[in-house]
Amino acid sequence: MPQTLVPRIRSEFPSVDGTPTHVLKCGDFPPDQDKKILYLIIPGNPGVVGYYDKFMRELYRAHGGRIPVWGVAHAGHVILPDHVRSKNSDASKGPYGLHDQITHKISFIKNHVPRDANLILIGHSIGCYMMLEILKRCPEVNVLKGVQLFPTIEHLKETPNCSRMMWMMPLLSFFQWLAVFLAFLVSFLPDVIKRWLLKLVFVGYKLDQGAVEASLNLFDPNVINTCLFLGYQEFTQVREPDLRCIRQHLEKLIFYYGATDGWAPVSFYQRMKNTFPQGDIHLCERGLQHAFVLEGSAEMAGIVAGWIEQATAAEGGRAIDT
């Protein structure tokens, strides 16, 4: 495929309800396409959209450059550039909880996404929970498909990862402020030292450069504080799955569970499959991890693009002309 079909990703910082928000955009709507179709990625936690850089480019490439791909960061999860911070010195409202992040995404869609766009929403991890809330609260938004990647949409306290952390829940406040304090100290180090520290943390991983740059945000104390605050609310608020919403939008939804996912174990896949046997619900057979953005972006993009092509063909037409 010609390299021109994968343009440089644009980085923008629109104001969403007064909060400067990092948005990545890959590609534009083809001028000869009657129906505007747009991928919109809702990240997990940390909600640093830079982690999805390679995934976005590969997804765009997989469709031959016919579908633009956008990704919107969570509020407060990204270090703002100096020129953005200087114009929004009074804009900080954090830390942002789970409800705040949901209303933030709804506001972004209503005010910054073209109204005539047909959305393919991609949620990752807690982004899947946010996607279901968008479907429930915004029936006026035209969503063609909702792709749920490694969904954390139910019973987080029952997951293996959360169970291993339960012993420290009474000390969570202490550990949160310790993490924030350490991030404050590390934030004064030059980026070259921070990148060296990341190599130690991710030893054994073959990280894409975009993932490395995205991880630099986690050395900021405000970002860490907001990520941990959101994580705590996930543990306490993500309980029963919204089966009514899933049932209502089942034909639009595609679920992809991991075979070794500590945040959404196989038992959750089996329960969802038993509840909705007619649903498009998959269990990974390729060894992809919950944090697929670290090493499995290209493979995951190919899988998603295949689903969308197959789905549109099954609906009796080529809504996506590639």
TrEMBL record:
Transmembrane segments: 165-189
One Gene Ontology CC term in the entry: lipid droplet
Lyase keyword on record: no
GO function terms (MF aspect): sterol ester esterase activity
Entry EC number(s): 3.1.1.13
Record GO biological process: cholesterol homeostasis; intracellular triglyceride homeostasis; lipid droplet organization; lipid storage
Root EC class: hydrolase
InterPro entries cross-referenced by the UniProt entry: AB_hydrolase_fold, LDAH
Keywords from the UniProt entry: Endoplasmic reticulum, Hydrolase, Lipid droplet, Membrane, Transmembrane, Transmembrane helix
Subcellular location: Endoplasmic reticulum; Lipid droplet
One Pfam family in the UniProt entry: LIDHydrolase
Database matches in Gene3D superfamilies: alpha/beta hydrolase
Family membership noted in the UniProt record: Belongs to the AB hydrolase superfamily. LDAH family.
Name listed for the protein in its UniProt record: Lipid droplet-associated hydrolase
